[in-house]
Amino acid sequence: MSHAMRPALALGASAAILALGLSACSGLPFGGRTPSDRSSETSSSRSSESPSPEATGSDTSAFAMYVGQCINTPDGATATVEEFDCNQPHNGEVFYIHNLTDATRPSEDDMEKKATDACLAAFSPYVGKDYEDSNLSIVWMYPTVQTWTTGDREIVCIATTDDDSTLNQSIKGSGM
Looking at the 3D structure of the chain, how many domains does it have? Predict the structure, then answer.
């Protein structure tokens, strides 16, 4: 099974999907910008030169993620993510998991809208600050066409820093 990782975009915006096959996890985060740029932003790719946390985490399945889990967001194809204690350096935290109930897999545009709506709605209650005023970005992972056929139905919402710096604490209730 696999997930595709996608950026949180302004409603109605979409980006090309990176189809990487059955064990794919692709990343295209919201990108570095200031919170005031959010209303007019378009998709941008994460720099491959983002800092790597010094601590080592444990690999865990991308299909066993849970709310409050601190991770390093994957940069490319993977079926696993590196999990950390939230007090160790990491670059993302799962803040919401949305279960899709559709009978058939939504189109890419519909999947983007569902992910955008679900992740944006869950952000403020978890972090304690409106997304537009936050120093955090949102990325998500959702089912690929291939994993949909095996029962994958989760959109996983992950918060990262705007500047790709590391986190050393949980973002829950942080007001970041």
Answer: 1
